[in-house]
Amino acid sequence: MVSSTKLETPLDGEMISKLKIGERVLLSGIVYTARDQAHKRLVDELERAGRGNRQPNLPFPLEGQVIYYVGPAPSRPGMVIGPAGPTTSCRMDPYTPMLLEKGLKGTIGKGRRGKDVIEAMKKYRAVYFVAVGGAAVLISKKIKSANVIAYKDLGPEAIYRLDVEDFPLIVANDVYGNDLFDEGINKYRKVKE
Amino acid sequence: MREITSEEIAKAVENLCISSNCGLGEDVWRALREGLENEESPVGKEVLEEILENDRMAEEEKLPMCQDTGFIVVFVEMGQEVRITGGDICEAINKGVINGYKKGYLRKSIVGDPLRRNNTGDNSPAWVHIDIVPGDKLKISVMPKGAGSENMSIVAMLSPVEGVQGVKRFVLDWVREKGANACPPLVVGVGIGGIFEGVAKLAKKALLRPIGSKNPVPFYAEMEEQLLKEINNLGLGPQGLGGSTTALAVHIETYPCHMASLPLAINLQCHAARHGTIVL
User: Fold this and answer.
1) Residue of A nearest to B244 (CA)
2) For testing contact with chain A, the best of B21, B28, B39, B54 (most A CBs within 10 A)
């Protein structure tokens, strides 16, 4: 079994610049959830604040934080949260560079990010972690508490504040522009016989 | 004439919604375990181990294995001797979905309008295909289809001269570009022939076949085998992170088509290949 790096939020530039693609990470601390609609609302507010020359009114601070792309299933009585595996990250690509610019340091999801996001992660020094898509029950057991803090009207797409412990992740994009998806496919592709 | 009540149908759908979300068929388990055994990449092996452990937990604790409990697709084969009493069959199916998603603590993921997007709150409506067949049985298959894999699906009207090589090229290119986002290892449903709206249904119906089954026509069985090998040679691997287990199966379904057309559909299924069937 490959060893894992233990990491705690909030993340700072120094610690994440040491992370390499393919590195296994066990993440602990506070993580915020957001999907498509929540991202749109966050970015709309950042743009409005920019135009109005005022501080943005966001449901959580971005500096050093990590966003997990997830819409959990309902929890049974007595459970902290229902099954909560990652959703496909590229849907959030249009909104991510601006959040990175404002200090977001990590995102967690599944699947590849686009070029713009990879460039932005290099520029603003942030990383992209993947969690195993479909490992929803296993991941939910790493979540110690879950509270809706914004956009309750979005149901499963609301923003949750999660307290996680040893959330198993793999570094997919580091701060140097490397991409685990590219490296992987190049390594295991077989030439046609 | 054989009578089946809408109440019976609603109850069957309710149970299938829950059971299909919480447990996998033996064929899928076998394919995942074989994938783990043969996987060449260390990351790929870890991913498959995590998936298998997750699915074991889900089955033990009767929890949905994935938080995306999907859009419910129902395939009904209704014997022409069957008469439904007590209410509309589609209403009965939707009632089953609503009850199943409530009782099973499944996620309500459906919006009532595709552009204005307010959640319906109960995961209805389902998408129902009804085919009339000979006989007096009612066969109902329920498939929770997640958006991750569904979003990476496509219908294309190829030109007839593109032929076998054109179809294979299209499928390989598509899986290479889009496969990572559909949660590999995949089951690849391929529809060939028919007509625009029909070829998509063929590709989805292909996903109901047990993993390990072959198309009954040797020409297509061979094509399924070749495509599976070539897809796995792409090197995408589990979750697209690199490896040798990109697909667990390729299922092809075909139908006659216009001499000037070559309709093709690819419906990707993730590793949570969930579906359940009952015959009433």
Assistant:
1) A188
2) B54
Domains along chain A?
A: 4-188 (3.20.130.10)
Which residues of A are designated catalytic? 39
- Cα distances from B250 to residues A136, B68, B146, B241, in angstroms, run 25, 23, 18, 20
Q: B67 falls in which pLDDT band (50, 70, 90)?
A: very high
Write the residue in B46, B58, B242 that is nearest to A187 by C-beta: B242
Q: Is A114 an interface residue toward B (CB < 8 Å)? A: no
The arithmetic mean of pLDDT across residues B76-92, rounded, is 97
- Residues B235, A189: C-beta atoms closer than 8 Å: yes
Segment B11-27 mean pLDDT: 98
Domain regions of chain B by residue span: 2-20+65-145, 148-272
Give one DSSP letter per residue of chain B, joined into a string.
Answer: -EEEEHHHHHHHHHHHHHHHHH---HHHHHHHHHHHHH---HHHHHHHHHHHHHHHHHHHHT--SSS---EEEEEEEEETTEEEESS-HHHHHHHHHHHHHHHTT-----BSSTTT--B-SS-PPPEEEEEEESSS-EEEEEEEE-HHHHTT-EEEEE-GGGHHHHHHHHHHHHHHHHGGGG-SSEEEEEEEEE-HHHHHHHHHHHTTSPTT---SSHHHHHHHHHHHHHHHTT---GGGSS-S-SEEEEEEEEEEE-TT-EEEEEEEE-S----EEEE-
Q: Calculate how close chain A gets to B136, using CA atoms only, in Å.
A: 38
**Hey, is the C-beta of A149 within 8 angstroms of any chain B C-beta?**
no
Q: Which of residues 190-249 of B touch A (CB under 8 A)?
A: 230, 233-237, 239-244
Q: For the whole model, what pTM was predicted?
A: 0.95
Give me the tens of pLDDT residue by residue for chain A, a chain 193 residues long.
Answer: 578 999 999 998 899 999 999 999 999 999 999 999 999 999 999 999 999 999 999 999 999 999 999 999 999 999 999 999 999 999 999 999 999 999 999 999 999 999 999 999 999 999 999 999 999 999 999 999 999 999 999 888 899 999 999 999 999 999 999 999 999 999 999 976 4
Say what the ipTM of the complex is: 0.94
Residues from chain A that touch B47, judged by Cβ atoms under 8 A, are 132
